Each structure stands twice: as C-alpha cells, then as structure tokens.
Amino acid sequence: MVSELQLSPSWLSCTHMNKHHHLLLRGASSLTVSLCKRSGPTHPPPARPLFPSSGAGGTTTAAAIVSNFFSRHHHSTLTSPHHHLPKTARMSTTTPSPVDLIEQSKRLAAFQSVTAHLVPFPSRTRIGIGSGSTVIYVVEAITALVPPTTLSTMTFYPTGAQSEQLIESAGLNLQYINKLPPGTLLDVCFDGADEVDPNLNLIKGGGACLWQEKIVATSSKKFVCVADFRKMSPALGTMWKKGIPIEVLPLAANRVLGELERMGSLGPKVRPGLPGKAGAVVTDNGMWIVDAPFRPLRVEGTSDKEKGEWQVDELADALIKIPGVAEIGLFYGKNGNQAGEGGAQKPVEAYFGMEDGSVKVLSA
Amino acid sequence: MVSELQLSPSWLSCTHMNKHHHLLLRGASSLTVSLCKRSGPTHPPPARPLFPSSGAGGTTTAAAIVSNFFSRHHHSTLTSPHHHLPKTARMSTTTPSPVDLIEQSKRLAAFQSVTAHLVPFPSRTRIGIGSGSTVIYVVEAITALVPPTTLSTMTFYPTGAQSEQLIESAGLNLQYINKLPPGTLLDVCFDGADEVDPNLNLIKGGGACLWQEKIVATSSKKFVCVADFRKMSPALGTMWKKGIPIEVLPLAANRVLGELERMGSLGPKVRPGLPGKAGAVVTDNGMWIVDAPFRPLRVEGTSDKEKGEWQVDELADALIKIPGVAEIGLFYGKNGNQAGEGGAQKPVEAYFGMEDGSVKVLSA
Amino acid sequence: MVSELQLSPSWLSCTHMNKHHHLLLRGASSLTVSLCKRSGPTHPPPARPLFPSSGAGGTTTAAAIVSNFFSRHHHSTLTSPHHHLPKTARMSTTTPSPVDLIEQSKRLAAFQSVTAHLVPFPSRTRIGIGSGSTVIYVVEAITALVPPTTLSTMTFYPTGAQSEQLIESAGLNLQYINKLPPGTLLDVCFDGADEVDPNLNLIKGGGACLWQEKIVATSSKKFVCVADFRKMSPALGTMWKKGIPIEVLPLAANRVLGELERMGSLGPKVRPGLPGKAGAVVTDNGMWIVDAPFRPLRVEGTSDKEKGEWQVDELADALIKIPGVAEIGLFYGKNGNQAGEGGAQKPVEAYFGMEDGSVKVLSA
Amino acid sequence: MVSELQLSPSWLSCTHMNKHHHLLLRGASSLTVSLCKRSGPTHPPPARPLFPSSGAGGTTTAAAIVSNFFSRHHHSTLTSPHHHLPKTARMSTTTPSPVDLIEQSKRLAAFQSVTAHLVPFPSRTRIGIGSGSTVIYVVEAITALVPPTTLSTMTFYPTGAQSEQLIESAGLNLQYINKLPPGTLLDVCFDGADEVDPNLNLIKGGGACLWQEKIVATSSKKFVCVADFRKMSPALGTMWKKGIPIEVLPLAANRVLGELERMGSLGPKVRPGLPGKAGAVVTDNGMWIVDAPFRPLRVEGTSDKEKGEWQVDELADALIKIPGVAEIGLFYGKNGNQAGEGGAQKPVEAYFGMEDGSVKVLSA
Fold first, then answer.
1. Which residues form the signal peptide (chains A, B, C, D) (predicted)?
2. By Cβ atoms counted within 10 A, which residue in B125, C94, C211, D37 is the most buried?
3. Subunits close to C (at least 3 CB pairs below 8 A)
4. Band of residue D340 on the pLDDT scale cut at 50, 70, 90
C-alpha cells in the first residue's frame, strides 16, 4: 500500500506547478521525495518556479531547494539571499546537522503541502490553520508563495490560541470558526498530528485543543496533515503511548474512566496540569482531558474487544457515545475526498518531514 | 404493544408490597391505574400498606389513597390527618379541581414508582434524583416510605442545581455523580422528561441540564421516568415542539446549525437567555443549547431521511457524532433491563400522572 | 446642578458641526433639546448638515429632523425618502403615538451622541459598542453619518453577543477587546445603562454582560451613555429596583449573599435562568449573577452604613473587594475627562431619549 | 518586631496543652522552636501529651518528639512504634539527611499549628484545608490528634482538587465552601503559601487555585499558614520571583497586562499551560493566570509608585480594582484576630518547618 518514489528536483520544478501534479500524487499512495542528483535539463517553470533546480548538477538538499526558491521569488540580492529564513533552513556549505535536516524536511513538507493544495491560489480561499512545529512552515509557505493581492482576500481560521498567534504574527486575515456561516466550508485545513497510521487515521490532542481542532478539520472540504517522521506509525498507539486524548465533562471523569477500563484501556488517567496548575488540565472549553492508552489500534481486519484489541473505527464509535465524553482525539472515518459535504475527519494527505531531509507523502 | 388494565385499590394494597408485583407490572407493557370502585374484600397488607383501600366501598381518588397511606404510616391523629401534605393533595369533601386532580395523579405516580423500584428499601442504596414537578413527589415519597434508619444509609445524586436543592431541603444525604467510583452504578434514577414515546424514547433538556441528566441516568442500573400526561406522545416531536435540545460548544454553534438544517431540522435555533441574560443560554457546563425541531420521530419501520423523517435511533446516532455536539437531549437505545453493565439511556418504566387523577405506567 | 436649555433646530444645525459645540455642551451640565419652533434664518451648514432645519417654520419633531438629515445625506428620491428608516421613526403627517415619540427621541439621542463624540470622524477610530435599544440607533447613526471610506478604517469592539451581531449586521469591522494591544485605548465607547444618577454613576448588568461591558468601557478614552428617560434617576436604586447586578464565582455565591446581607442589602438573590435554563443564570464568563437591592444610593454627603444607606463610591469599593465577586454592575469613580490614562468607569455624557420626543443630555 | 525564643521540649509538653499557650505564643511575634536539651523535670500533661519529652535527657529532634507522641497516643507496641509514620519522619539512629530534617520540621510545624488552633478539639468544628506539602501533615495531625468521635462531627472544606483528595483519602467529612450557609464562618483554615513576609502578608497562587483559596481563607474566623522555611521572606517578591499570580478574565488579559506594566510590573505574562496544554493555563474557574513580577513589596513606610515600588496594601488595592481582574494572589489587610466578622485574608500565625529540623512561628 505504501510505495516510495525517488524524484529529482527537476521533476518537482515542473510538475508541481501544473494540475497534473495532483493526479500524480494521488497515483502514489505514499511518496518519498529524496531530492537526489538531477540529471536531466531544467524545465522552465511556466509561471513561477516553486521548487526550482539548483544551478548545477549535484545533490540538492531540501534547504537548497527552499532557499533557491526564495532567492528567486523575493528577488533578493547576493549579499543577503536568505535574510528572512530561520537559521536551520539557511543554505550552508557545511554538512547540515541531523536537527537541521529534520527542520529542513519539515519545511519542505510544508511548502509541498501548500503547493499541492493551494495552487493556483484562488482568491477568497478560507483556510484552517492548526498547530504544531510543521504548521509554522505552512504559514511561512503561504506567506511566501501566495501573491500579496490574493493573500489579502484569504481568511485564516485557527484551531486554538497557538495558531491564532501564528496567523496574527504573519499578518494574515484572522477569522474564527464560529463565524463561518452555517452550511459553508473552509476550502482546506492544514494541521499537525500526534500520530498517523497508514490509513491516515490520526491521534490528536497532545496540546488539549482537540475539540476545536476537530471542528475546524471537519469544517473543511479537505484536511491536509503536516508533521515530522516521528508521527508516522504502523498502528495508532505504537508511537504515541500516552493514550488517546479524550475531552470530558469534569463531573463525568470518573464515570468515563470506568467505561474506558471496561473497554480495555490500560490505565486511563486525567491529565494533570502541573507545573502551571494544581489538579487537572482544564481545556479552553472548560473540560478535562483523559488520556486513554489502548493496545495498538488495528487499521482493518478482525478485532478482539475482549482482549482490548480494537479497530480504529469501532473504538472511535464506542468512545464518542460514552456520556460525559465531549470529543475524542481519534480522527477517523471518511476523508474530504470521500465525504462530499464535508464533515470528514481524516486528512486526504499527510506530509512528513523525514530524518534524512526528504519528505514522505501519504495519500488517501 | 400498549394495553390498559383497570385495577382496584385493593389490588394495589396487596400486590405492591411483594416481589410478585414487579413481575406483574413487567407483564403489562402499559398500565393504567384508574382507581375504580372496589368490590372485593380488603386483603390485609403483609407488612405495611402503601396504598391501602379506603375504609368503605365507593370511588377512591388518588388523594384518598395517598392520604390514607399517610394516616397509617405516620400514625397521625384525627385532628390533623394530613398535616404535612401539600395543599393540592389534601383530602377534600368538595370536588377536586382539574389542577388538584393532576397534582394528585402526579403524586400518586411518584409514590407508585418509588414503591415499584425501591421496595424492599435495601440499605446503602444509591439513587439519582432528577428535576421536574413530578420528581418533587418522588422525594416526598422516599422520605415518607423509607424507614429513617434505612434512609440515613442511602445517598442521593442530583442531576442539577434544582434537584440538589430538593435533596438538601428534604434532609437527604447528598452526593455528586463525580464522586461515584469508576465502575460503580447508582441503583436507580428517578427523573422527568419533556416527551416520552411509546418505546420509552425520551426528549429531555427543556431546563438545559441534559448533559448531567444523561450522565446520571446512564450511571444507573435502571432509570425510572416520572411525569404527567402532557409528556406522553405517539412520536417524539408531537407534543414537545420546541425541538430536540442539543448541548453544543459555542464556537461550533453555527456549524451545528448548518448540519442540522442539512439533516432536515426545521429551523434549529440557539436558545436565548432572556429575560435573565442577553444572548444565548449558557449551561452549567459552559455550553449553549440548540433547539432542533424535527418531524415527529419514528419509533420503528422505515425512515426517509431525504424528507427529514428520521427514526429515533438513527437520528440520535447521527446527532451525537456531529463535531461540536457535546450531548443530545434524545434518550434512546437500551434500557437498564437490557444493558447489563449500565450505560442505558431509556427508562425501564415511565409513570404518568393523568388528567383524571389516575396513573398510567409504560413499561419496557 | 442640572439645568435645561431650550434649543432651536437651527442651533443644532450650525453648532453641532464645529468644534465649539463640544465646549458648549460641556458648559451645560444637563441639556434638554426640545426642538421648539425655529424663528431665525437657517444657517447654512459648513459641510454637511447633521440636523438641518425643516423647510418651513413650525414645530419640528425629532423624527422630522432625523428624516430630513437622511433625505439630504443619502440623496434619496421623493419616492422613497426614508426607505431605510425603521417604522417608528418615519416621518408621518399624523400625530405620533407615545411609543413613536420615545423611539424618535432615543434615535435622536443616538445621533446627537455620535455627532458630539465622533465628529470630525477621524479615520482609524476604535469604537466600543454596547447593547440596549438605544445603541441600535448609535450604530445606525454611525453608518449614516460617517463617510464610507472613513468607516472602513474604523474598528468596532462589542461588549457581548448582542452588540457583536449589531456590528456585524451593519457591515462594520468587528474586533474583540482582547485584541486591543496592551496600553492602547478605544477612542470612545457607546453603551446603554439600566439606571443613571445625576452624577453619572450607573447601574448596568440587567443583561448579565456587565463584566465585559465594564472592560470595554474602561478600555476607552471616554464612555458615552445612551438610553431612554426611564433610566434617569435621582439616586441609583430608585428606578432599577431589582438590585445591583454582581457577577460572582458560583462556589462563592452563598458567601457573597451573606456579606451583602451584612452590608444592608435587602434580599439579595442569585438570578434564576428560567425559562431557558433551570437553576441560575450562567454568564458568558461562567459566573452567576447576584442581584443585590440596596436603599437608594447617595450621590454625596454622609452615609449611614448601619442603616444600609451607602454612598455610591463607598459601596462600590466595599463590593469589589468581597472575595468571590468578579465584577460589579456599579460604574462609578472617574470619567474619561478626569482619568487621563483611561480606566474610567463613568460616562462623560449621557443622552436620554425623552417621552416627549426631546433629548436630554447629562454632562460630567 | 521578630524575636526568637529557645524553648525546651518540656515547655512544649506542658504549655501546649493548656489555654495559656495561646497567650504565650501571642506574646512572641515570632517563635523559633529549636528543640534544645531539656533540663527541667517533665510536667505531667493534664490530659493527653501532645509533644511529650523524650524518656531521657539529651537533644530531642523533631522526629523524636513526634514519634514519641505517636507511641503514647496510639499505644503502639515496641515492635512497631512508628508503623504509620511516613519514611522520612521515622526515628532513626543514623544522622538524618537534610531532606529528612526539613520533612520532620514541616511535620512538626503542622502538628504544632493544629495543637495551637484546634485544641481542645470542639465538636462540629468546620475546618478549611488548603494545599501544599506541609498541609499534608496538617491532615495527618488532625487525624492523629482528634479523638475519632469528635473527628466524625468535624467537616472539612477544601480549597481545590488537591486538598479535596487529601480530605477524602484521610476519610474525613468533605464539604464544599459553596455549602457554607450565608453568614456562617469556618472555625479555622490551614493553608500553605508561596511567600510570607514579616507582617504575614502572603503570595499565593502558584498552583492557580488562588481564587478558591482566598474564598476559603476569608470564610474562616482565622487562617493559619503552614509552610517550609523557603517561603519566609523579608519582602514579597524576594523569594517568589515568578510574580504575583492574578486570575483574569481571558478577554481582558491584554488589558490587564497593559495596566500592570503601567504600574511598574516587570514583564507580566500570561502563564503557559505546557506541557499538558497548549496556550494559557485555564483555572478551575475558566480564567487565565497572569504572573506579575514587582520589585519587592514594602511592608510599611513610604512607597515610590513612579519607580514601581509599592507597599503591599496599596498594590493590592490597585490590582483588585483593575477591570478584568477576578482575584489576586496577594493576601493582605486584616487577619482573623482583627476582623471580627471574618473576611480576613492574612493568617493569624504562620508555622515554618526549618532547615535544621526546628519550627519557626510568626504571629500577628
């Protein structure tokens, strides 16, 4: 189900700019961009090169691609070609550290996701912006890639205080999800995740903002996930071991804990607020968070609930119906491609910045 | 499915006190107690007569039965046989007004429900107490019927501020549902409803306390509904026309309204707080209430969602999964008899005070 | 302290448009505009007539003035000179009903307050918008009087859900008070009141929004009150008899009630939420409202706390310090003219629509 | 103002048991119990020795005193004289570690405070229980010292979730402060502090529970502070450098930050919720916490507000009146001895467990 493709930057430079790109990406259910040596000639980009080739042959790092892009796009001079780039992403003649590589790949992932899902930048687009370290690069990408006159017509909907600050400090038009008129959808939502399985089921809620995140994601025509390689997982519960975050009414916490144990959760707990707050974390909605660890959740096939082994969809269905549960950190079911009228929880695609500087894409 | 039985007071006096009573009531899926003329001899009650016959033949009103009970139970004197009864329920030589009759029947319904579901008054019972005008009589009944030493071992769990006051002013042991240890259940919960259909599906939430009410009800081994005749309905949405109360996260209100309209709700609205509060009602949980009218909900058979015609269970399932919905005012699915481990939303029985002074019982 | 001036419309037409107007109004501590017969010639308005004279001699009603204004300002045709005016304010050849008169005077009060405090309509003005039936006319006045290009640079800060809707439905730029940068002030805030005493002390909070209202008012360089004649009072507690609204932490309600009684409050009570909600009103901040009636509050002179007779400032000072009190509905102390750095609670001026169609102005 | 007394255990054994003790302690504004060598004969305790002398002459550590007490009180056998003591407090033949010494002194402080303020253990006492590591020993002391039949008549009021658990796990009668009838006071409240100055002004709120803590403290006839030596300070802001915790309405956070900076606060900040929650800490009351550092607060004498130098009372008075501030973490003004009707914020006494195993008492 997951395949890997080695793509040269020259491919990126030409295909990411046209509409075939989308189909191409859809053809591969998983795509690794490893930015290997380019051999062929540089195709002249039709309008504006998003990921142009480097000037000469040789291995091109993600940073180089990104910085090359910026040097053209912004017409910056030789003396300060990357003045606005964060340190980790600046082109360097020395070997990048592993941390640099990861940051570069996360950034590349963000640029790629924006390219794939916002081109050709229609005006009046409504965009959900989530939180997480990779989403920061999504906002950077949007600011860099979208023409200013178009950008000023776009509106950005945060999933919480963190993304609200992100939107504001980037000078973008902020709007709140409660202002989205009934029956209307955001065009796309970019958000991170705490864990992603091969079927694009997610765990979210490490930052206790899952309720608003799910509302924004499911208010979008499509949801695009951006993250780093540590969030890729064969089965939910493998990498994120703290448990599925569940937002609960405080007076029902005990009751929910009892239900969870009966369902096979291994030591569910109310999340503590320390060091900032004694007692439980209180969410922005006045609720508590229960973290409910389960055995790794099966993507498909049979489950054995007696042993506490659940399929994602089954578990999600059972959890959301427990009285006292306000919302759950499992994003499951349909994605935006399948659900015509919105309301889809799963992303249509997930972009991961990899350890080696490459980007891996998981598509529905 | 619904049958009516005419029962004489003498039947009440002997059968309500033994364990067969329960089976008898279960045998009838619906029971009307119309307090007709008694013809046979009075069976001596085995231990303590709850609803004894009147001394002589003739029509016995609900008030007479209740007051007779009290006169024996409390050993009250002739001079003040009903000193602690509320005005509307006092025996009168004049014809009772319609209002008196209804109050008498509600009270009788409460006494009957307590008799049926608390006898033989085991100690350490944990009881949920809801709200509504009939529940007031439930508390009165418990106080009157349960021996004081047993009563002092019982604990009472309110569904909101109103029932909390009720419990406290009756001098009963108050405890909060959040203190119920995980995995433990209340023994029984008595609560009202805004509408009851023949399958014992309920609409609740007219008082904006539905979330806590559902938590208490589903934390009980069985849930007993007490109400007056105005709440009986052939199909939910027939009598209670304001709509299904839905507790929503304020920032998702618009989004939920849009979903509801798409599902066929006829003019769903955020409930206003006036006169006490400008803007929306805020619940005790910091949420808003959306009242979503639907066409009368089908109990069984086919539905036609395209026309906005829903079955109760289908609709409830769809509503609870809308992101932004915290809880819904539909009580549906299993009842305590069916759901071994609790978590049942539907009552096992509903007692209605009727317009003519009688009590109607609807059993699962 | 309160004097009344009879002013002709011609005075209004010329003086309201220049900067002297402000000083003139300040000279009179109370101003009644009774719109008597104009005798002199119409002074040609320097730029745009806000309250022009009627075409011929004779008594000019508030409605006539307003409608004349609109007919010029909007260049409307003969066929539909007042197409956008609410019904009650439309010019009529028949005698206006008392209700019409009041609505006309409230509207006139709103137009006058906007004229006095927004002219010459500087761009980038930040304006607080409160709630109440007169504030509706303030928004209408702003929309009507401010040139569109200037209006698009102005930002409007609501005090609650009601004024938020008002701002949005008028198509004005909405912003939230939490977005006002630290150290910045709104230029002016227009809000209603439940009662106004001669020293411009206010009672607010009938709509349970007092906390946000006080934050917006005290975030403004000056606060302008608009209301109708029923809110004018010789002493707070004379007209508004329900008590001073106090926003309290629910778990401290009993404690605050006890303190209030000790201080002489006559039957303070937690405000009930019915019919929309059983139990207490919950504010948008998750608090409860206690309504605390006191004997009419003295504006100055001696007080006798033992008898429960308080001066406004003394009482406010004592109330705000009760632990458990979040905010109080008394607006007292300094006004924007006195408090250079903002933080003033009292209005600099209050405009009242009077029963006879006139406007009364109370100035600090 | 602060004097130190060297007291022998024998003094403790006899004076702590009678009523003169209280006066003696009041005579010293500060009392250090350093547990030196006892020289005189052991006075036979009149009823029950709380802090009896050790069996032989020689230096007596706090641990020895406490453990001796327990060995008598509980009639424990030789084989297990200290079976229920936590590890750190067990008598040891080896030299106690510094950590042991501090724990021992905190425990001794707790026992001393309970002895001083609860003896002769009147029944039906209502006791506030706060949080903090020393309060744990207060609950232990109460459980150990109060006769069970009396203990069962006492009621305990927590200041938050932490102390609620403490009360429950000790099997004490829990009650909530909102259930205290209007006009009634708790008899005494034991709580910790983040910093204590020589005049017994406090900073509290490190755990974000300051609002409830202040309500419980000021609902008590007297408030007794228990803490360790790290909380003793010559001036508030010297030891606790994170700033005065201030509970604010989220939408007013910016506005409050601006006011605080204007008042001279050095970098006030909204407290972050990480790692459990992205964005701000949300309190149990739905508020945010602003931590506002000020220069060390003067206890008395002149202040220079222009330089940001404040007296405690002046600053507290200014802070509580900022609109948007719900409550402040300064406990100041009167103490229970001065304030006849309660409502006092300052403790009447503070007990500190010292580094050397001794207890220091600071009295009003």
1. none
2. C211
3. B, D
4. low
